[in-house]
Structure formats: structure tokens, C-alpha cells
Specification:
heterodimer, A: 369 residues, alpha/beta, 8-stranded mixed β-sheet, 14 helices, 13% strand, B: 378 residues, 2 domains, globular
Chain lengths: 369, 378
């Protein structure tokens, strides 16, 4: 059982109230959350330090303009925040951040992590014409009923890790019929409990792993299986790879937005990937023709090899792909398989070491000579 | 102006491919750089071809521009000149970008034979993917509409293409290919091969193609469309001015940007291996972020979104060829190319510079003129 802060306010209000309390009481120096900017409907992550600016915060807005894990890494890359900062992020963003911390790309120190049982987000393209605002009531209706929200991103619909693993505080949304006038905020850690000390509300005991959560996990698992079957990656072979990635335009936007791809300069953008004219001439002679720029599939497979073990399936890669390649589903499927081989779940626990940095004398004996 | 006339067999694309095959046979060039349909049939990719049988799926004028041709050429010749002679068949904006990249030492034009074609524009990549067949039909309609549509191209092509006044690969389009292929005003019955220089003439000579025919009718038609496009470009930019000028409008326009930098990756001119805005310099100590947030109450994260666009603009606008690749790659459908085009037109005019017009014309920032820009002197 976990300690729960219960208030008679809508979820949106209660979360904002919590953030306000933390900022006003000086317990935190800043609030990191989604915010409406520019008054034109655009939503972006922001670091808020004034109470006044907090009014534009939309912590639960169903959009992921960037993976917050990547942003938190940016914030803490050069050293942890000196004064506490509270961050409201989605479970996959949190998992990504944990993976980045393991890779020494960020620090958890002085961060109070707030997350929610996540109902998913809409594709970025729906943020272009303000379509999300029209969908909001449908989004919350489905969430209350504990159903998969239609039109959210495919990876979200098939995400089974919607219950945050390492959050100090978790707001429950899925299957909560009363979220319009009642909010349950789970205080998972001692840190979480200390920070909310002094806030208005009733404290009760509760269980995060509710019936609704279990039921949703099953639905998502089914959807994930359906998604994987649809892509049919097992049957890909070289032909399938060529057909799938043939339309890649080489922008590498997928690696730019991927929270796990933290390299300042991707290997595939490095000099190693540039060839002298003589190399092209040799290939011409050997094969009669070659695609330029070359190495389209090599890039995808290379990235897959690099990030697969830590892929949290946040879906941003597919969201930004100008060629509409279902990258996230492919990466998640391969990531899932690799992760299972090592019994590893990225972002589950910061103490859990990345498999490739761990030496086990007794594993994969079957591939030994 | 004079040129050769080729009769169209089957269709324009096939006629051009036959011409290229003949060039390969006669060893006028050793390989061809041309867009070829990808195996899944849902896009086009640049392929360097020596083996003629690979040309069966080639399309010298594909309906989309997934990769700007100059980028393909750069990947082959960035490290030095190629020893094999390559005929690169590209759209005028791709030729112009290649010429700019040669000045920036990212393309080596030695042994490269540039062939351009009258360009009706391309469809947005988003409109093509998923429904390639329908899109292809739509594009073919546009392609053949030159006879009755004075704009040549309609609202279906990309915004950058709709207002492009440099879609011809000869001096009237400020473009310096070696050989230009004219398809306007021919009712798809013939095509014109118009040599732009000695190298163009000598290749036609080698192929026993006489280039003494008048191309006046083609040129007249091309000039008509150029005038219409110029007018439209002015109108659109006038409207854009009121929408994007000033810091508030700019912030508003780029507020949806998610910092993926796809625009810079797709841009042929942005050749930096690592963009300044992705470098270590942009990663600040956490205190700095908090201080900046404190000064305004809230700091957008990542910060400096607008700074990236303005920085990129400053870096590349003198060489911007208005190809529209940036906008095609933007997941948030921001009018990047239109805004960049607008600014580029103005900055280029300031130096009386047309990017891609001539390899001899040096980049304004590399040229010292004692007598210029007096109005900004103190």
C-alpha cells in the first residue's frame, strides 16, 4: 500500500495546485512541465519559476513536443540542479531519463519526479491545426472509462509500461471515473511525501496496481501484439528492410529526437561515413549502380544496434519522420526482443546496469564455439 | 539561342532516358546520377548508374524531391573529383544548389556534366506518400498542363515551387547547367536539348546531335511563365511580410518548432557536419537555465528555438536556392521555406547575388568590395 493524497478537485486543477504549493512554499525553485506558449495554441515544455506563469501550465496535455527525458538530460548534463526542481513527465519520458542518467547524461539529484498513469499522446501532426483541442473531451472520456484512446499514436496504444516506475509522485488517471472532481496523488517515495508535507488534502492508503490498471495493461498488450503482427518484422529479411526503409530521406530526424541517441555527433554523420570518389567508382564497377547518399539501411540498423537495448518506445522517431516510416514500432519490437534476452527493462530502476556494460561469465553459452 | 530537337518516343521521361543511354553507349559519360523509383515503389532515390538495365525505373522528373540532388552529388564528390565522368540530371534548383556547394567546397564539379530540365515543381512529400499512384496522376496532369496553364503548376505543388521563378536551367532561370532540356510549349511531341556552354555543345557533337534549331518558341513560353511566377512571388511575399515581420510574429511562427532540425538536415546549403546549435556550446549549466527562467518567469525548453532559425538563416540565406526541402521535412508544417525564401531574396538582392547562377561568381561574404553598403557605415 502507498500513501495517497486525495483532493476534491479535478485532476488538472489538483496537479496545478500541487505545483503551485511546491513553488509558493519555496520547496522547489522551478517547475518543469508542459505549458501553453505564445497564446496561439502551441504547447512546449517549460521551466517555470514564477507563480504567475504557472497559470499557463498544462501538465497533462496529451502531446509530446519533445521527449522530456532528453530535455531533463539537457538541464542536468553539466551538473545537477542546485535547488530542487519538480518535473511533470510521462512514464516513457521518465524511463528515458533514467537510461540517460545511467549513461551519465543527467542527474536525478534535486529533481522531484511527478508522473501519471499515461493514456498516451496524439501524433505531432495533430498539433499543427489545433486538432488536439477538439479531441480533448474524447481523450478524457476514454481515459476515465479505462479504454485505449482512439487516434493516439500507435506506440502509445500498444504501450504496456504506462505506470511510471521511478516517479516520486504518481497521479492516477486511467479508469478513474471521478477525475473531474476528485484526484488521487500517490506518494511513492519518502521524498515525495516530504515535499507535499503541509499541503491541503486528505491522506489515505491506496494501491497503484488497481483492477483498471491490470485491465488496461492487457488491452495494451493485445494492441501491441496486433501492431507487431501488422509490421511482421520477423519476415522482413533484406528485402523487407529495403522496402521499409527505401523511402528514408536521410534527415536523421529520428536520431535527433530520440532520447537514447545522445551522441553529440552521430557515427553515421561522421567522417567515417563519407567516402572518397574512388569508393563510389569501385562500387559502380562491382554493382553497376548504387544509391547516393549511400548507407541508408546501415544507418537504421546501426542506430537500432546502439539504442535497441534502451529503447523505451516513446514514439517520437516515427512522429517526426517526414517519410512516414513506422520506425518506432520496428525499434520497439527489436528493442523488446533484445531487452528480453537480457531480462532488462530500460528505465525500471536506475541501479539496474545496462547489459552491455555488465559482464556475466554465464550467459549466451549457446553462441559460444 | 539554339538547340537540338528530339522526337518524343513513348513519353518525355523515356525519351530523356534513351538520350542518356546513348550517352553511356558513346562513352560521353561513364555514369548517370538520376532519381530511380525505390523497390517498394513508394518513393524515389538518387542512384548513380553505370549499368543501363537499372535505368528502367528511372524518372528524370519525379513528382517529389525526397533528397535534394545537390546533396547526392556532394556525397560523391565531397572528398575530391571523380575520375569517372558523371552526367547528373537534376531540377534547376538542384543544379543551382550544386553550384553553390562547389563554391563552398562541398561539391567538385570536375568531370560532372550537369543536365537540367524545365521544372513544374514537385508535390509535398506528405501528399505523395501513402497514395503514390494518385499523386503521380496529379503530377502528370500538372506536367502536361503547360499548354493551357499560364502558371504551369497549381496549388498542388509545394508553396516554394508555386512561386519559383528560376525553374529553367538556362540564363533566363539564372542557372548554369551544361545542357538544359526544354519541354515547355512542345505539346509533349518533342523535347529541346539546349547547350549552355562549350561542354554542352561538345557532348551533343559527340552524340552526332545537331544543335542548330531555333528554340525561340520554347523560350517565349518559358519567359511568359517566369513573369507570372515573379508576380505571384511578389504577392505572396507581400502577404508574408505582414505575417512574419517583427519579433512577436517570428516567435509566433516558430512556436510550434520542436527542435528536430530536420529543416537543416534536408537543406542542401547547410553542409556543416555539426551545426553550431547542436554543439556542446548550446548545453548550459543548470544554473544558467534557471537564471534565464527567473528573468522571464518561464523558459521554454529547449530554449533558443527562434535563435536557431535566425542563426541558420544568417548562415545560409545568401546561398538559399529556395528549393523547399526544409519545409517538406518539417513535421510541424511550419512555413520554413517561404520565410527563408523571403529573407533570402532580400539579402541576395543587397549583394546583387543570385546563388547558383555561375561558378565564377564568388560568394558575397568572401568578396571584399571597398565601395558597398555605405548606408550602414558610421
Amino acid at each position: 500500500m502507498t500513501k495517497v493524497l486525495k483532493t476534491n478537485k479535478s485532476v488538472e486543477e489538483a496537479v496545478k495546485e500541487l505545483l503551485k504549493f511546491l513553488l509558493k512554499s519555496g520547496k522547489v525553485k522551478g517547475v518543469f512541465t508542459l505549458r501553453k506558449i505564445n497564446g496561439n495554441g502551441a504547447v512546449a515544455y517549460s521551466l517555470i519559476t514564477s507563480l504567475d506563469m504557472l497559470k499557463d501550465a498544462v501538465p497533462l496535455f496529451p502531446l509530446m513536443p519533445a521527449n522530456a527525458g532528453k530535455l531533463l538530460s539537457n538541464l542536468t548534463l553539466r551538473g545537477s540542479v542546485v535547488d530542487p526542481v519538480v518535473a511533470v513527465v510521462r512514464p516513457c519520458e521518465l524511463r528515458a531519463f533514467i537510461e540517460l542518467v545511467k549513461r551519465k547524461q543527467g542527474s536525478l539529484e534535486n529533481l522531484l519526479l511527478v508522473s501519471s498513469t499515461c493514456a498516451g499522446v496524439y501524433p505531432l501532426e495533430m498539433a499543427v491545426n489545433g486538432d488536439i483541442d477538439k479531441k480533448l473531451s474524447q481523450y478524457w472520456d476514454a481515459t476515465k472509462r479505462g479504454e485505449i484512446v482512439p487516434d493516439t499514436r500507435p506506440t502509445c496504444m500498444g504501450c504496456e509500461h504506462f505506470l511510471p516506475y521511478t516517479a516520486d509522485i504518481t497521479v492516477t488517471l486511467i479508469g478513474k471515473k471521478d477525475i473531474d472532481n476528485q484526484c488521487e496523488i500517490f506518494l511513492n517515495t519518502e521524498k515525495g511525501q516530504q515535499f507535499v508535507d503541509g499541503i491541503d488534502g486528505e491522506f489515505v492508503e491506496g494501491k497503484l496496481e488497481s483492477e483498471e490498471v491490470v485491465s488496461m495493461r492487457n488491452k495494451r498488450k493485445d494492441e501491441k501484439k496486433r501492431l507487431f503482427d501488422e509490421i511482421g518484422i520477423e519476415k522482413f529479411g533484406l528485402k523487407g528492410l529495403i522496402e521499409t526503409f527505401g523511402k528514408c530521406i536521410g534527415c536523421h530526424g529520428c536520431s535527433k529526437v530520440c532520447p537514447i541517441c545522445y551522441c553529440n555527433l552521430c557515427y553515421s554523420d561522421s567522417k567515417t561515413y563519407e567516402h572518397k570518389p574512388s569508393v563510389y567508382e569501385m562500387q559502380l564497377k562491382r554493382r553497376g549502380g548504387l544509391r547516393v547518399p549511400p548507407d541508408t539501411i546501415s544507418y537504421q540498423i546501426g542506430r537500432l544496434t546502439h539504442v535497441g537495448i534502451s529503447c523505451v518506445g516513446c514514439g517520437l522517431c516515427a512522429d517526426v519522420c517526414p517519410a512516414n516510416i513506422p520506425i518506432s514500432t520496428i525499434f520497439l519490437k527489436v528493442g523488446d526482443s533484445v531487452q528480453k534476452m537480457f531480462d532488462y527493462l530500460p528505465g525500471r530502476d536506475v541501479e539496474e546496469q545496462i547489459p552491455v556494460t555488465t559482464f556475466e561469465t554465464d550467459e549466451f553459452v549457446e553462441v559460444e564455439d | 539561342m539554339k538547340g537540338a530537337i528530339l522526337n518524343v518516343t513513348e513519353n518525355i521521361a523515356k525519351t530523356i532516358i534513351n538520350f542518356l543511354e546513348k550517352g553511356l553507349d558513346k562513352k560521353c559519360f561513364d555514369a548517370v546520377l538520376i532519381p530511380i523509383k525505390v523497390p517498394a515503389g513508394d518513393s524515389f532515390a538518387w542512384v548513380l548508374v553505370q549499368n543501363k538495365s537499372l535505368l528502367k525505373d528511372a524518372n528524370p522528373l519525379p513528382p517529389v524531391m525526397p533528397v535534394q540532388g545537390a546533396k547526392a552529388l556532394s556525397s560523391i564528390t565531397k572528398m575530391g573529383k571523380t575520375n569517372r565522368k558523371i552526367a547528373a540530371i537534376m531540377r534547376p534548383c538542384e543544379v543551382r544548389a550544386a553550384v553553390e556547394l562547389s563554391k563552398l567546397e562541398q561539391v567538385n564539379l570536375e568531370n560532372i556534366f550537369l543536365i537540367s530540365i524545365d521544372c513544374p515543381g514537385v508535390l509535398p512529400l506528405k501528399d505523395y506518400l501513402g497514395r503514390p499512384k494518385e499523386a503521380m496522376d496529379k503530377f502528370n496532369k500538372i506536367l502536361h498542363s503547360a499548354q493551357n496553364d499560364i502558371q504551369w503548376g497549381n496549388e498542388s505543388t509545394r508553396p516554394a515551387c508555386q512561386v519559383c521563378d528560376k525553374f529553367i536551367g538556362t540564363d533566363i532561370g539564372f542557372c548554369q547547367s551544361n545542357l538544359h532540356i526544354g519541354i515547355l510549349g512542345t505539346e509533349d511531341k518533342i523535347i529541346f536539348l539546349i547547350p549552355n556552354n562549350e561542354s554542352g555543345k561538345s557532348i551533343l557533337n559527340e552524340m552526332d546531335i545537331e544543335a542548330e534549331k531555333s528554340v525561340d518558341n520554347w523560350e517565349k513560353k518559358a519567359k511568359e511563365i517566369i513573369e507570372v511566377r515573379k508576380k505571384k512571388r511578389k504577392e505572396v511575399q507581400e502577404r508574408l511580410k505582414s505575417e512574419v515581420m517583427g519579433i512577436d510574429n517570428l516567435l509566433d511562427t516558430f512556436s510550434k518548432c520542436i527542435n528536430c532540425h530536420n529543416c537543416r538536415s534536408a537543406c542542401p546549403i547547410c553542409y556543416c557536419r555539426q551545426c553550431y546549435f547542436e554543439s556542446e556550446i548550446m548545453k548550459l549549466p543548470s544554473d544558467d537555465y534557471l537564471m534565464r527562467a527567473d528573468s522571464k518567469g518561464a523558459l521554454r525548453f529547449l530554449p533558443d528555438t527562434l535563435l536557431f532559425h535566425l542563426g541558420r538563416m544568417t548562415h545560409m540565406s545568401l546561398s538559399c536556392v529556395g528549393c523547399g526541402a526544409c519545409e517538406d521535412a518539417c513535421p510541424m508544417s511550419i512555413d520554413v521555406s517561404q520565410i527563408f525564401n523571403f529573407v533570402a531574396d532580400n539579402s541576395q538582392e543587397l549583394f546583387n547575388y543570385v546563388p547558383g547562377k555561375s561558378v565564377e561568381e564568388s560568394l558575397p561574404l568572401k568578396t571584399y568590395e571597398e565601395d558597398e553598403l555605405h548606408k550602414v557605415e558610421i
